[in-house]
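Following up on my earlier thread - several people asked me to post the actual chain instead of describing it. Fair enough. Here it is, all 224 residues.
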Amino acid sequence: MNERGLGFTADILILAILVSLSFAILFSFNQAEAEIIKERYAASFARNALLALLNCTADQLGGFSYQAGFRVPELDGLIIQDMVSKNFYHKDIRQLLAEDVLLNLKLKIVDKTIDTIWSNEDMNKELTALLKIVLDELVGSRFGYRFSVKAIPFETDLAKLDFNLVIENLSSSGVRLCSETVLLPLPISNDELMKLLECRVGPVLPLGLEMDPTIEVNLEFWSR
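Reply from S.P.:
Thanks for posting it. Predicted structure:
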């Protein structure tokens, strides 16, 4: 991660530290109260760290590159093909995570996984590596952490479409201190996602199936 990215993010995180320190200065506390202060500090730090990370651009964090893993004629003109054909350095992590989810959704039909629908695993690998570096730099020296991204656009008795990513740096004796979550929209409409699925695997889903367009991004802090 370059110095500009670290400085941009650190400015936001310093606010969480100052707010937390003010509790310690203004109040005398016993051990039980100290644990409460620690948890409040962790929650404030986690909330600001997560928001700062999501709003940084790839370029601010040092950038990364990848080779689009597919070219599907049926997708020309649709949003998914547009994602892999444009420069992404100006995009923030929020956008890149949403696109990573869409480009690496896995479909399971009656207990059989049909891998990723339009796999772009190289993007997932490079973005995961970048996030691991950033989180280790910003959080790893203070707390253990678990960063997760998940989405389940639909789940029925016969089929499930989902995405799950976990990046963590934990100690075996750690205790979870806090958990902060941000919800992002899946960057595609219900109709377009159904069309993409039909292009790749045929009409396997019931008509009128409503998708859940929510992506859940979660950051947990754990004691060291």
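DSSP finds six helices and six strands in the chain. That should answer part of your original question.
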